[in-house]
Design goal:
The chain is α+β, with helices and mostly antiparallel strands. It contains 8 helices and 17 strands. β12, α5 and β13 form a beta-alpha-beta unit. The protein binds pyridoxal-5'-phosphate.
């Protein structure tokens, strides 16, 4: 294997803790529209303390990854979906659309320049974080007239470095994350801010993630942390809640919906209440559960806490369906298997020497 040129040692990677040398920026004013797309040194932002994003939270973001292929080039995975989602989030927040082609090219150039940051270990990747932020200094509650669009990238290791580690989830019965007609379908910081206090309380109970119920009846299963969720019935049937308006349109979820039937699983989008799920865990019909998202790809759920009750799934171990989906999806993402779905785009990388010379 080639020399590891990443400035970050694999053990220190974590998730989203280190950022590369460069970033993309692009700005918008009402007069000129979007202009000055630039890749330059990673730098701090200067924002007016009255910037609209800092008060009204007019801001959106997204997340995708560039995966190192066996031939040293990179794969982007369904990046068109992420770009479209960034724009639909922006539309919900009253923000101007960005040019999807320009945004995708910016990602391709940035990851190609920064690829040496990906440590040469299995399942390492560059996490890509695009953000659009309202910059106009104005305290009035209305759409900002200026915006900054930027993209930063962060080398990340496998989400479970020591192999799958099933997560425990705390079912939130008092607090909700998103409401139909609200902003749950948008990737906007308010949704995540609303989850933080509950996530901290869950952590105190020994749970790594929160299972969110619908905001109206507080019965229907929505999502788990920043992941979509699925339950496996009888070892072969996978059920996931339909996109209700409060649930993020996950790219991983959509990929599982497409892939699972080809692997012989029966796949259903169906509303599920927490009471049904609890009963079906207790009577053994539910054999596994897992979260789906870009960061972990597939995160097996080993246990749940709801009020004062606890349930264990698959003896707290990773189930075969989660394992199979993880293996198949990551093979396609990392270019270790053919991609019959046309999900991946290859990005040729700058040579290591060239890449490290540009500073
Ligand atoms: C709330 C929420 N749900 C689900 C997901 C999973 O989406 P994806 O598979 O596109 O990463 C994410 C991650 O972006 C998220 O933030």
């Amino acid at each position: 294997m080639a020399e590891n040129l990443s400035p970050v040692v694999p053990e220190a990677l974590g998730f989203g803790r280190h950022f590369t040398d460069r970033m993309f920026t692009h700005s918008f004013t009402e007069e000129n529209g979007w202009e000055n797309p630039t890749i330059g040194p990673y730098h701090e932002l200067t924002l007016d303390p009255a910037a609209a994003a800092l008060h009204c939270g007019q801001m959106v973001f997204d997340g995708t990854k560039a995966y190192r292929r066996p031939d040293g080039d990179l794969n982007l995975f369904r990046v068109d979906r992420n770009v479209a989602r960034l724009n639909s989030s922006a539309a919900r927040m009253g923000m101007p659309a960005i040019d999807e082609r320009l945004h995708t090219e910016a990602i391709e150039t940035l990851v190609s320049l920064e690829h040496r940051w990906i440590p040469k270990i299995d399942n390492a990747s560059l996490y890509i974080r695009p953000v659009v932020v309202a910059t106009e200094p104005v305290l009035e509650v209305r759409a900002s007239r200026s915006y900054l669009h930027y993209i930063i990238v962060s080398p990340v290791g496998p989400y479970f470095p020591d192999g799958f580690n099933p997560i425990s989830v705390f079912v939130s019965h008092d607090n909700v994350r998103a409401v139909r007609g609200g902003t749950g379908e948008a990737k906007t910081p308010g949704n995540y801010a609303a989850s933080i206090a509950v996530s901290e309380a869950a952590r105190e109970k020994g749970c790594q993630q929160v299972l969110w119920l619908d905001a109206v009846e507080r019965r229907y299963i929505d999502e788990v942390g920043a992941m979509n969720i699925a339950f496996v019935y009888g070892g072969n049937e996978i059920r996931t809640p339909p996109l209700s308006g409060a649930i993020l349109h996950g790219v991983t979820r959509d990929s599982v919906l497409r892939l699972a039937p080809d692997l012989g699983f029966v796949m259903h989008e169906t509303p599920m209440t927490i009471d049904d799920v609890w009963r079906d865990i207790e009577n053994g019909e539910i054999t596994e559960a897992f979260g789906m998202g870009t960061a972990a790809v597939i995160a097996p759920v080993g246990g749940l806490i709801y009020h004062d009750r606890e349930a264990t799934l698959n003896r707290g171990e990773t189930g075969p369906v989660a394992r199979r989906l993880y293996d198949e999806l990551t093979r396609i993402q990392y270019g270790r298997a053919p991609d019959p779905y046309g999900w991946t785009t290859v990005v040729r990388v700058e040579s290591d020497e060239h890449s490290s010379a540009i500073r």
